[in-house]
Design brief:
elongated, single chain, disordered C terminus, two-stranded antiparallel ribbon
Length: 315
């Protein structure tokens, strides 16, 4: 039967406008209860009964409708699809004055890419700030702390560059590895910086005429004193530990754990053993006395040198 058969309604006669208020809600509820079958193929029970939430007799609290993406194959396709859905939802929210948001099953994972760049900047900045603060406090020199933090930053940037060469995407897993790279880089740098600060029984002021020569000697002593330990005790053990992952069949493990860890170990070793001593020799801060004078350090290093040569002869 026609709606409002016995009544005169503008929207029923001229087909302009729609029912309003209570009339709309009454017909909406009736439509949502109507089975979708041969007698009423446009009934809304099957396709829409769970798509509309009626808060009261006068209000629709929320509703949803379905739409489709084009075929998505690569990771970039999924990221772009989610970004396009967010853009369209934002436009609909502005036009309607309500809150419109998109949802699909893969958004749960790819939502991280909307903020991953900003999160990376924030997390790495806080990590480097912590490195600078703790190194400066423990070694008593802001210059040395700044050199260590700068070396750590360069090491992490090198890892990110290798990620680009190997097509390793920035996501939650690789971000965790980048934060670990900060810690690994500090491990390579902290021993050299500690030995530099305590070498030769103290340090001259930065602007002292003999300062460059003194810093150069302290950097040499630090590298000779702990460089071999850093190389054998940190670099080689970690390389041997991750080498087994090169044989794995899992692409996830091979990409995010073998390749990234290989990159951060090589980067940390190069910056800690090659760049850091040079940077400390140019810009390192004052040291402190650890009870050893220059002659004692020279004798100790010479004795260790002779001992290592003797061990090689015996071998």
């Amino acid at each position: 039967m026609p709606c409002y058969e016995a009544e005169i309604q503008t929207w029923n006669v001229s087909m302009e406008g729609l029912p309003q208020g209570d009339s709309f809600m009454r017909y909406l509820e009736q439509w949502l209860k109507t089975p979708t079958d041969e007698t009423c193929p446009l009934g809304g029970q099957a396709p829409y009964s769970s798509a509309i939430s009626i808060e009261s007799a006068h209000n629709v609290a929320a509703s949803h409708f379905r739409t489709y993406h084009t075929p998505l194959k690569s990771q970039d396709d999924f990221i772009d699809a989610m970004a396009a859905a967010d853009r369209i939802a934002s436009h609909l929210s502005t036009k309607s004055g309500g809150h419109v948001y998109p949802y699909s099953i893969f958004y749960v994972f790819f939502d991280q890419y909307a903020t991953i760049t900003a999160t990376t900047r924030q997390v790495l900045f806080l990590a480097l700030l912590a490195v600078f603060s703790m190194t400066s406090f423990m070694l008593g020199s802001f210059r040395t702390g700044a050199v260590v933090a700068g070396t750590t930053f360069m090491s992490v940037m090198m890892v990110m560059g290798i990620m680009g060469i190997w097509n390793i995407n920035l996501n939650a897993v690789s971000l965790v590895n980048l934060v670990i790279a900060v810690g690994i880089s500090v491990e390579f740098c902290s021993h050299i910086a500690r030995a530099f600060s305590g070498a030769l029984g103290g340090g001259l002021p930065f602007d002292h005429p003999s300062g460059p020569k003194e810093r150069n000697e302290r950097a040499w002593v630090a590298l000779a004193d702990v460089g071999s330990s850093v190389f054998s005790g940190i670099t080689m053990t970690k390389l041997i530990g991750i080498s087994v992952l090169a044989l794995t069949r899992s692409k996830l493990l091979r990409t995010y754990y073998f390749r990234m860890w290989l990159a951060l170990i090589i980067s940390g070793a190069l910056h800690g053993l090659v760049f850091l001593p040079v940077a400390l020799a140019y810009s390192g801060g004052r040291g402190f006395s650890d009870g050893e004078d220059a002659d004692f350090i020279s004798e100790r290093l010479f004795a260790e040198d002779n001992e290592s040569v003797s061990d090689m002869d015996v071998a």
